[in-house]
Amino acid sequence: MNEILTQEKSIYLQISDMIKNDILRDIIREEERVPSTNEFAKLYAINPATAAKGVNILVEEGVLYKKRGIGMFVATGAKEKIMNQRKEEFYDNFIKSLLNEANNLGITKEELVAMINKEEK
Amino acid sequence: MGNELVCKNLYKSYKKTEVLKGLDLQLEKGKIYGLIGRNGAGKTTLLSLMAGQNPVTSGEITLDGQKVWENQEMMDRICFSRELNPTTNFSISELKVKEYLKMASIYMPNWDKEFAEELLKTFELDANKKLNKLSKGMLSMVTITVALASKAEFTFMDEPVAGVDVVMREQFYRILLDEFAESGRTFVISTHIIEEAADVFEEVIMLDKGKILLKENAVELLDRARHVSGVAEAVDKVMEGRETYRPEKLGRSKGVTVLLKQGETLESDTEISVQPMSLQQVFVAMCGKEVS
């Protein structure tokens, strides 16, 4: 929740990404309350409606749920859900552009695999 | 060396208020400097001192090694176009725009009359209007006209775009860059509209509480300014031994601003996010209040 907002992407998408990152990093855990839209609005100096839009995406995805009169909470299983979602996006976001740029530079698949194998952590 | 404006250990007080507190600064020729600082940081005082319009309490200001104060030859090379305020400055409030320009030109040996007229046209200013009939933005454009038409080697502008609409601001930056490219004059420009001027500045001077907090090439500064956030312990670990600015804590999460060393890199990983920052964000982190 301490990341800064940039110009590159819609603010509400950045808000929802930020909450997801925090869930992945165990900064906010399952069944814990997330900041209210008004708290987000104050923290980032943005309109509460924009903050609400970011939070509502996560409600629709089942990552957050609303407890009437108390606030928004992280759903059980949310972390796994985000992980699966990111895995699905991984192909589109990373592999495709990786292959594209490799193609532009004339890097063969074999060379690519060799590079990945070299980068062992 | 030599071709420079140098401030050494400047102190300036107005009665009991100490505005500048031991300030050192060196301006090289042929650059556009951005002077940024919060209200009351001492920007206007510094500019008026450097222009020789205001005596220092202690310290020294030299241009090419010669004292500026009461030195006509040096002062002729410097123009400080002050903010105009006809409501507090009655001596000028009844003047027409053209009379004010005429008056300003007397002090400016390199005054370019044609350029001044051209600027009035560009800014859509009526030369026959009295200053006290102009809006805040129009008054700013008069001060811009004086500054640019002065053709002074060193030109200081104090919030030239205050109250000016965005179309004219864009216009101003373009004319400024044009004039700079043609003449290689040195400009020092103070502003609160940091983001849009960031690309115009070659060097940024941050003034905080009467001292120079930072003076650095704008691009290099942004190359090494990073916002680091994520799991609090992980952030603390990466930041160990570094000077950090404006920490924000929220539960298990933490964010700080840091200036990396020249050429150093820091990447996001599973526990921390490392983000580039805008000049405005760096300024707020370094000169702003702690977040509560």
Report what the structure shows.
The complex is a heterodimer of chains A (121) and B (292). Chain A is mostly helical and 121 residues long. Chain A has helices spanning 11-24, 37-44, 48-60, 78-105, 109-118, and strands at residues 64-67, 71-74. Chain B has 292 residues and is an alpha/beta fold. Chain B is built from eleven helices and 14 strands. Helices cover 33% and strands 31% of the residues of chain B. In chain B, helix 5 (113-122) packs antiparallel against helix 6 (136-149). The radius of gyration of chain B is 21 Å and the shape is globular. The chains are: A mainly alpha (121), B alpha/beta (292). The interface between A and B is medium-sized, with 14 and 18 residues.
Shape of chain B: globular
Poorly predicted runs of chain A are none
Largest sheet of chain B: 6 strands, mixed
Shape of chain A: elongated
The spatial strand order of the largest sheet of chain B comes to 6-7-8-3-9-10
Strand order of the largest sheet of chain A: 1-2
Most extensive chain interface and residues per partner? A-B, 14 and 18 residues
Average pLDDT of chain B, rounded to a whole number, is 94
Strand fraction band of chain A?
5-15%
Number of strands of chain B: 14
Query: What is the strand tally of chain A?
Result: 2
- Provide a count of the helices of chain B: 11
The helicity of chain B comes to 25-40%
> Can you write the helix and strand succession of chain B as a string?
EEEHEEHEHHHHEHEHEEHEHEEEH
What would you report as the Rg of chain A, rounded to the nearest angstrom? 18 Å
Structural class by SSE content of chain A: mainly alpha
User: What sequence of helices (H) and strands (E) makes up the elements of chain A?
Assistant: HHHEEHH
Task: Output mean pLDDT of chain A.
Answer: 92
Oligomer: heterodimer
Overall radius of gyration of chain B = 21 Å
In whole angstroms, how far apart are the ends of chain A? 28 Å
